[in-house]
Each structure stands twice: as C-alpha cells, then as structure tokens.
Amino acid sequence: MQKSGLRYFLAALGPGFILAATSIGPGSIVSSTNAGANFGYNLFWWFLVMLAFRAVFSLAMNRYTVVTGKPLMVGIRERYGKVWAVLAGVFAFVGQCVYGIGNFMGCGLGLNMLFPGLPVKYGGLIALVICALLFFLKDLYKKMETVMKVLVGVMAVIFIISLIGTFGIPYDGTVSHSLVGIPTGSTALMLSLLGTTASLGTCAWGSSLAKEKGYTTKDIDQGGLRSDVIAGVVAIGVVSLCCFFVGANLLPGQPIKNGMDLLNALSGLLGAWVRPVFGIGFLAAAISSFMMAPKLGINLLLQSLDQDSGMENRLENIISILMLVFAAVIGFLYSGAPAQMLTLAQIGGVINTPILGIMTILLCNRKDEMGEYRVNKPFTVALSIAYVFVMVTVVNNLINIVSGFLR
Question: Which residues 6+ apart lie within 8 Å of 403 measured at CB?
Fold first, then answer.
C-alpha cells in the first residue's frame, strides 16, 4: 500500500468491516437487545470485555498471518497437529450451518419489514438468490470489502438513530442502571453474546481475509493492521451497544423473541417512520451475515483439511451456496433453527474458544516463525489476561447452566 496519512489508513481498512458485517446479524441484534431488556445496564461491562477480547486476538491472529503468510488455521495444523485444526474447523463449519438458518429467516423478516405483504420465507429465498449470484462475481474480495463497508455504515447510522429515539423515555426503575453485575439468569445470554460478538472462529477467518487483503509487515509498522482491527471492533461495539441500550431504555422487563418484536416496540413509541428505517438496518445486518457466515465456516474447515480456500475459491463458493440452501430448507420446515441445533452450535463455539485462544498465544510467541514480530511481553500478558478472564466466565456460566439442569 504505497499511500500515507489519511489516504493510507482508509485504504488499509477492509477485513475488519467484513468481519463486523458477518458478526452483526439477527441473532446478535436480538441477544444484545435482550441483554438490556432483561438485565438493564448490568451487562455493559461484559460488552467491553468481549470487545477488548476480540480486538487483541484479532490483532494477534492477523499479525501471525502477515508475518508468516499462513492463516491461523494452517499454522495450527502445521505446528500443533491436524487433530486440533480439524476439531476447530468442524465446529466452526457446523456452527455457521446452524446460524445460517437464523440469518435466512432474518433476511425474510427484514424484507417483510420493508414490504409487509411479502411472506418471510419467500423473502429469505430472494436473499438466497442474491447471495448465491454474488459468489460468482470476479475479484470477489474487493467487491465484498466495499459492499460490507457500506452495509456496516448503514447499520451503525440506523441503530444510532434508533437509540436516540429512546432518550426521551422516562426511567421507571424496572431494571438496574448499574453498569456492572452478573444478574441471576444471565449466564446463558452471556455465552450467546460471546458467540456472536467475540467469536474466535470469526477472528481466525479474519486472518485469511488479512492475507487476501495483501497486508505486509509495513502495515504492522505503520499501524494499518491495527487501525483495521480497531475500526471493525468499534463498528460491532456501536451497533451492539445501541441495541443493548435500546433494550434497557425501551423494553425494560420485556424480552423480545425476534426483530419484529423490536420493530413493533419501536414503532409503538416512536411512530411509523421507524419501520422502513429499522427495516433497512435489520436487513443489512441479516443479509451480510447470511452471505459471509458460510464463507467463514467452510474456509476454516478447508484450511484444517489442508485444502485450498479463499474468497474466489470455486469449491468454497459451491459449498457456501449449499449451506445457504440447507438454511433455507430447515427454515421452511421448522420456521427457524430447532433448539437442539442451536445448542450444538453454542457448544461448538464454547469448545472452539479455548482451542483457538491458546493456539494463537503459542503461535504468536514462536520466534522461529515470527522473528522480530513475535508479540512482546505486554501483548502476551494482554492476550493471556483476556483469555483467562473470558474462560473463567465461560466455565462459571457453564457450571451454573448445568447445575440448573440437574436441579
């Protein structure tokens, strides 16, 4: 990248926005809103922890790829054995197959918000056709980078507008305004938020995107790599926290089931103008996740199996389309993902977090591969603290969930 100043930093942005667009989907919107609606401001601290966790691990994974020329999953397979890589790849693939069902329904719901006479499932099919056709575009990475920047911008503006609309609503004391706490019943939701907001599988795919972007060690030195990671994390934080505070301010004690519940609540208090505005933001979130999430899952699986992968890889794109079709079939049959499938996906995400976390720390500290770009002690400490903190929270929440089942 032969640019400098602001032009350089704008040109350096890309993978972070693709990851943000992938992470912000119907599920994350509903989970973030319910975090506020159910527990007030108590889980605000958890969002900050997740965003910091995502930032340090994304930067570390991308740094490893830029220095070695190998995506993280390839490094795991080559240095620590294919078993760990395949395990992480399989769970990432299964998780994205399942989450794709929610994205399919979310796309249909978003189109229904804009065109009320259009059935949700048929709206999902329209989104499927659009996404499948886009996979056949040439120079797909650059085109998707541009599209996802626009979609993330649209989402950020619209959800900020939605939040501003709730400021005049008086506080009735239904939920707590304390910014710190682990309220009773919040454990499962905290795990769900971790799986959408700070998935290490998504961050690992980001290392592949960093390679396709063409970053070099100069981008590490000049700060372009860091700027991209920060911009992507900030975008996720803006949308997630807007939903969180909308839930706390607008729906205290009134959890929502889907985006339509949220739209109806917004419309009831703010007026009919909200429907098309929120519908555009919700559709942007759904269709970006619907298209990119399959790429994430199959990309990591192919890498773990020592197969070629990439944004324009034919096999990756064919399987991605098949994943979209699978989501549509299940969506038509069950009107959403069955609870057993969602549980399997969440378990996979919980298993992936410790594997990818510890492997990232080990790989980034390998002097034989990283050389002068091996992460320094303060960075390693930051990675370790973030990893331990999140894992302790995850294990504690799992214990609470299991204990609840055994009672």
Answer: none
What is the helix, strand, coil percentage profile of the chain, to 5?
80, 0, 20
CATH code of the domain made up of 11-406: 1.10.4160.10
Of 342, 354, 282, give the one whose Cα is nearest residue 97: 342
Q: Give Cβ neighbours of residue 353 (< 8 Å, ≥ 6 apart).
A: 194, 200, 390, 391, 394
Helix (H, G, I), strand (E, B) or coil at 337: coil
Contacts of 146 (CB under 8 A, 6+ apart): none
User: What tens digit of pLDDT does each residue of 188-208 get?
Assistant: 788 778 877 888 889 999 999
d(CA 396, CA 387): 14
Shortest CA distance to 66 belongs to which of 221, 283, 185, 257?
221
Structure tokens at 61: 């994974």
First to last CA, the chain: 59
Answer yes or no: are the C-beta atoms of 69 and 283 closer than 8 Å: no
Give the length of the chain: 407
> Which of 175, 239, 174 shows the shortest CA–CA distance to 30?
239
Q: Which residues of the chain have pLDDT under 50?
A: none
DSSP 8-state code for residue 171: P
Spatial distance between the Cα atoms of 22 and 294, rounded to a whole number of angstroms? 10
Closest CA relative to residue 103, chosen from 30, 162, 50: 30
Question: Domain spans of the chain?
Answer: 11-406
Among 279, 331, 395, CA closest to 128 = 331
What would the DSSP string read from start to end of 198-220?
S-HHHHHHHHHHHHHHT--HHHH
Q: What whole-number distance in Å separates Cα of residue 315 and Cα of residue 298? A: 9
Instruction: Give the contacts of 55 (CB within 8 A, at least 6 positions apart).
Output: 229, 230, 233
Report pLDDT digits (tens) over 115-127. 998 999 999 999 9
**Do 388 and 357 touch, CB atoms closer than 8 A?**
no
Do residues 76 and 64 make contact, with C-beta atoms less than 8 angstroms apart? no
CA distance 351 to 372: 32
pTM above 0.70, yes or no: yes
Handedness of CA 71, 76, 81, 85 (dihedral sign): negative
- What sign does the dihedral 252-254-259-263 (CA atoms) show? negative
